[in-house]
């Protein structure tokens, strides 16, 4: 080859026309070539577009969590909107900030158009394996074309929220941004609602959550604070006592008794002071938007169950 290269250099020095000739000569297909980078240009005959789109192929892909759930999901081609939906769908089982470890895995099942490397549609099934436990969610498309993720048993992955934490007799004080407090004799906002009920009436967690505080605080008296599925958190104040087993750092289920109505702290009579925070902003508990229970029923549920079973098998490999 040195001889050939030398000849090329020499010939090129003569003039540009020769350069073209030499280069063309070098690029002419010669068989068989020792040059590994050489790829003959092959033009395939153009195929006519098929009249009906080919059936999509069902594919399963996995990614290892390196940093965040979002990174792993992005590496599988999942868009930001779907990542947010999935984060919420897993929220009742997995705390993405605390439970996820390097090496956890994310698997998705797609229906992709044949030959396509990416899908515009959200994944049909997603499995998040953290340590020794795995959590699955399945996409359901309702007759209107709306999509939501459900657990395999047809329970919505959107966490359900109860409106009222206690069987109350009346609303003794409404939520307000600014009101005169009869106890401290000051104008201040009322970040929650007061639900009057006899002392000892059980107080229930309005949604599942993590106990972030249980104890006494000025004003609140005996209070339980919960971090519920994002973006919600709730506060239950003026309790007479706490329910057994309620500990800071522990978890509670929706409807679980967390304490009993009292009048500890700054309270003029027995009532529950209840707060709902959305992204750490206090909202009116009586009117704030709460995620409902979108459980599937009847024929929809059966159709979903069949599909989830097939997708589950796909995830199991
Ligand atoms: Zn109050």
Automatic annotation (TrEMBL):
<keyword id="KW-0479">Metal-binding</keyword>
<keyword id="KW-0449">Lipoprotein</keyword>
<dbReference type="InterPro" id="IPR016047">
    <property type="entry name" value="M23ase_b-sheet_dom"/>
</dbReference>
<protein>
    <submittedName>
        <fullName>Lipoprotein NlpD</fullName>
    </submittedName>
</protein>
<dbReference type="Pfam" id="PF01551">
    <property type="entry name" value="Peptidase_M23"/>
</dbReference>
<dbReference type="GO" id="GO:0030313">
    <property type="term" value="C:cell envelope"/>
</dbReference>
<feature type="domain" description="Csd3-like second N-terminal">
    <location>
        <begin position="63"/>
        <end position="176"/>
    </location>
</feature>
<keyword id="KW-0862">Zinc</keyword>
<feature type="region of interest" description="Disordered">
    <location>
        <begin position="44"/>
        <end position="64"/>
    </location>
</feature>
<keyword id="KW-0645">Protease</keyword>
<dbReference type="GO" id="GO:0006508">
    <property type="term" value="P:proteolysis"/>
</dbReference>
<keyword id="KW-0482">Metalloprotease</keyword>
<feature type="domain" description="M23ase beta-sheet core">
    <location>
        <begin position="189"/>
        <end position="285"/>
    </location>
</feature>
<dbReference type="InterPro" id="IPR050570">
    <property type="entry name" value="Cell_wall_metabolism_enzyme"/>
</dbReference>
<dbReference type="Pfam" id="PF19425">
    <property type="entry name" value="Csd3_N2"/>
</dbReference>
<dbReference type="GO" id="GO:0004222">
    <property type="term" value="F:metalloendopeptidase activity"/>
</dbReference>
<keyword id="KW-0378">Hydrolase</keyword>
<dbReference type="GO" id="GO:0046872">
    <property type="term" value="F:metal ion binding"/>
</dbReference>
<dbReference type="InterPro" id="IPR045834">
    <property type="entry name" value="Csd3_N2"/>
</dbReference>
<dbReference type="InterPro" id="IPR011055">
    <property type="entry name" value="Dup_hybrid_motif"/>
</dbReference>
């Amino acid at each position: 080859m040195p001889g050939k290269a030398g000849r090329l250099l020499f010939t090129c020095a003569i003039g540009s026309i020769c350069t073209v000739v030499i280069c063309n000569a070098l690029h002419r297909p010669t068989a068989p070539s020792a040059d590994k980078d050489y790829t003959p240009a092959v033009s395939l005959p153009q195929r006519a577009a098929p009249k009906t789109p080919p059936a999509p192929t069902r594919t399963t892909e996995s990614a290892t969590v390196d940093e965040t759930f979002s990174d792993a999901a992005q590496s599988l081609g999942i868009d930001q909107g779907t990542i947010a939906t999935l984060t919420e769908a897993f929220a009742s089982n997995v705390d993405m900030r605390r439970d996820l470890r390097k090496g956890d895995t994310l698997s998705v099942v797609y229906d992709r158009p044949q030959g396509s490397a990416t899908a515009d549609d959200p994944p049909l099934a997603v499995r998040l394996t953290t340590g020794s436990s795995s959590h699955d969610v399945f996409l359901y498309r309702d007759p209107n074309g709306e999509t939501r993720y459900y657990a395999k048993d047809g329970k919505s992955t959107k966490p359900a929220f109860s409106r009222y934490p206690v069987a109350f007799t009346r609303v003794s004080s409404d939520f307000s941004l600014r009101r005169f407090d009869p106890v401290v004799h000051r104008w201040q906002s009322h970040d929650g609602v007061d639900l009057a009920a006899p002392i000892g009436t059980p107080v229930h967690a309005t949604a599942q959550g993590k106990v972030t505080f249980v104890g006494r605080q000025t004003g609140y008296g005996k209070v339980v604070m919960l971090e519920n599925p994002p973006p919600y958190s709730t506060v239950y104040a003026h309790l007479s006592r706490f329910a057994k087993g309620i500990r800071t750092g522990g978890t509670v289920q929706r409807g679980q008794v967390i304490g009993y109505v009292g009048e500890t702290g700054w309270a003029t009579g027995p009532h529950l002071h209840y707060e709902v925070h959305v992204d750490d902003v206090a909202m009116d508990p009586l009117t704030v938007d709460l995620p409902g229970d979108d459980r599937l029923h009847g024929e929809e549920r059966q159709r979903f169950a069949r599909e989830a079973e097939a997708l589950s098998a796909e995830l199991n490999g």
